[in-house]
Amino acid sequence: MLSVGLTGGIGAGKSTVAHRLVEHGAVLVDADAIAREVVQPGRPALAEIVAVFGEQVLADDGTLDRAALAERAFADEESRVRLNGIVHPRVGERTAELVGGAPQDAIVVHDVPLLVENGLAPLYHLVIVVDAPEDVRVDRLVEARGMTAEDARARIAAQADERSRREAADVWLDNSGAPDGVLAEVDALWADRLVPFEANLRLRRPQGSRSPSVVEPDPTWRAQAARAIARIEQAAGETALRVDHIGSTSVPGLPAKDVLDIQLTVADLTEADRIADALAEAGFPRMAGQWSDDPLDPGQVGPRGDKRLHTGADPARRINLHVREQGTPHWRAALLFPVWLSEHPAERDAYAELKRKLAHSHRADGTAERYAENKQPWIAEAMARAEEWARATGWSP
Hints:
Elements (H helix, E strand, L loop, with lengths): L1 E7 L5 H11 L2 E4 H7 L6 H10 L12 H8 L3 H24 L6 E5 L14 E6 L2 H12 L3 H9 L4 H7 L2 E4 L4 H25 L10 E2 L5 H16 L5 E5 L9 E2 L2 E7 L2 H6 L1 H6 L4 E2 L3 E2 L6 E2 L6 E5 L7 E7 L3 H15 L1 H18 L5 H7 L1 H18 L4
Parallel strand pairs: 1-3, 1-4, 2-3, 4-5, 9-14
Antiparallel strand pairs: 6-8, 7-9, 10-13, 11-12, 13-14
Helix pairs in contact: 1-9, 3-5, 6-7, 13-16, 14-15
């Protein structure tokens, strides 16, 4: 089951995207709809709210008067906490019930307006953010909901800003134009990414090695890695001693293959084996008996190695997750090498030239194995220089 978080600011047109995903077959779990459902007449939550805040929060027909409740519940922090204590557990229970009732091969889209504000992004395999410029959103809120422009801008200002949403977004959908534009993007997203992502996840199908192709530095690599790290930390729990973005994509200004290398540090590899299923369920199935093109540790990956290798199930974002024991030589090298390259631009540029040359020479045979192997002489000499720098500066992990 693929879990997708869908969010966006008020007036961005999130419901347009949600409805299109449902048309394709997604199971929609709407947080706002659930919040309204659990306080319907006859529900325990409504009775409890009346007991705490009084009969004045009811409308003449016995339904909840949300404006009257807001006056009382948001008057002070204690009242707000009491209301949340009544409503949130019921919303959580109903959400779990709906998700639990979805088929195992479902793509479940959880529509959560405050996903970013509440820090929920790591709970999903993928986060989609729907956005539009503020002026467009204000016009929509005035026309569709009858708000004043001032009220609309105040509501927008009270939500997460664009920077925060971009940090959380694996997919950014600009819904500022005609509906056909964003709907076409959703169609492509469903076919090219969500459907194969779900299959990879369900089948625990790792991505295999690819032909080496070095690209120019992407300024978003670090933000992309941060999102993956948050999901890994969520899945690994206390077993994770630390999780780091390593490899070439972690070095500013260094051309690299478009692959995020991440290192999960554990106390010992029995712990890595214990959390293998949790990592797979989070979107990082384990590779076994396959080639690792890690330049610091190339070779076959197996149960007797000094690491475990997982890879991302998302077809649109290649990730290698190296799980290593704290204190081992390769663990240390993986942390030292990118720091040293970042501190030495001339070494970084020499490494970039080597990578480009080898990628070009091995593109014809399409093998990551020879590409990684042929970097080893330079890597070995560079690591000796890196260790000298570490001793001179006192660097340590």
